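Handout, section 4.2: multi-component inputs.
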Amino acid sequence: MTDESREPRPLDDLDARLRAARGQRESETRRETAGRSSTGMGLGFRIATELVAGIAVGTLIGYALDGWLGSRPWFMVVFLFLGAAAGTMNVYRAAKGLDDSVGLGEAQRRKERDRTNDS
Amino acid sequence: MANPVEQFKIQPLVPLEVGGVNLSFTNSALFMVVSIVLVTAFLTLSVRGRALVPGRWQSMAEIFYEFVANMIRDNVGSEGRKYFPFIFSLFMFVLFGNLLGMIPYTFTYTSHIIVTFGLAVVVFVGVTIIGFARHGVGYLRMFFPHGAPLATAVILVPIELISYCSRPFSLAIRLFANMTVGHIILKVMAGFVVALGVFGIVPMAFLAGVTILEFGIAVLQAYVFAILSCIYLHDAIHMH
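Output:
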């Protein structure tokens, strides 16, 4: 906490010092994944939900398109597979510890960059 | 023995029907109100003193404030500051909902998927609106990775689009599933304690451990919900 041996500085310039310290930290936003810090059970839950959600959303979109265009069941079939691909992609990202932003390639590049920065 | 899923039953407390729509005030709604009242009371009463050197309650309130403020600064950047009230309300609402559910005889509103899905959809729609408001049609560029051959757009764009649209679902399912499964485990184990008589001490010990784990999950899931909202917000604001 506070360093007793040092001369206590007046509170007047506390605001300025705080602002300087904040500015330093603000320049870089740290990207975090929600799964990395959590337990194995958390990661398992995450993988299961990502897979199910991808397929469910794909099928739903296909179903809605079919209802709209009257082309049952073709869009549903196509989007079921696309949804499965999206779900698998999200599972891959979760397992690899990539961040949750849009775009797999970008996320991979960012992780690569972070790794080179760290070492 | 009590049915393990009976605890999730919605019971109308004040029956109310407007134009054929059931708008009853239920036990779920009651606990939402309780949690909002508790959060508001906790935050307003604890900082009432406005002390420069905070007391016990004030520093607790400040810990919550700083925790969320740091989370937004680290994950969204300084532009995210104006979304602080929203993220903070979301975090406190989910956190108190999860923790209130750990008290016996209470109702856990976050164990209903429609509640978590409602919260997730608000985040999703809000983030999408912010993205389009800041970048216009250019926001759609996000769905096609830089440098990929144009011919692959036919496959890549729908996949990224579905992945984007699956966000509210995975956000909602994660919170709902964690809370529901935890409460069912507790209930089933508690049933064993009674049924096994003297040997009930074994599930009892297990139950004690699981209860601690459940408290951890209650806090962790509120954190995950809030941090994912921050990450989505970062996407909408910065677009890389």
